Amino acid sequence: FVADSDIVLQLTKLIAHGGFVVITGGKEATLVGSKTEGEVASVEVPVIDPSTILDTNGAGDAFVGGFIAGLSKGHTLASAVALGHRCAAMILSRHGCDLRQLSPPSVDAAEST
Question: Which end of the chain is more exposed for a tag (fewer CB within 10 A), N or C?
């Protein structure tokens, strides 16, 4: 999807009530915003060589897990989204939906990249 001004305006209205909003778009940028941070940010998804993508099952779950892990460690929303992207990429390069690959040490390693 394209992060046009109408989408950003609607997200801005939503976050005015509190909490935060995250909208993923596959290989397109992820939009994230919160009342606390006061704006909507667009976080680019790292480019992945399509030949390395083996299975998309579980990538969304891995994104959410990485995102929540980032928030729980005090990351900004944009930084937590970036960690979610890295965790999703870890799943894309494997067959099957095995979230055990996202053990705390592997998430910590993804965090440092």
Answer: C
Out of 4, 55, 61, 108, pick the active-site residue: 61
Taking CA atoms, 55 is separated from 21, 28, 52, 87, 104, in Å, by 27, 18, 9, 14, 22
Task: Say what the pLDDT of residue 101 is.
Answer: 67
Distance CA 109, CA 113 (A): 7
Question: Which has the closest alpha carbon to 59: 81, 83, 87, 88?
Answer: 88
Rounded to whole angstroms, the Cα distance separating 34 from 18 reads: 7
Q: Check: CB of residue 40 under 8 Å from CB of residue 80.
A: no
Q: Is 61 a catalytic residue?
A: yes
Alpha carbon distance, N-terminus to C-terminus of the chain: 27
pLDDT less than 70: residues of the chain: 1-4, 98-102, 104, 110-111, 113
Non-local (6+) Cβ contacts of 95 within 8 A are: 54, 55
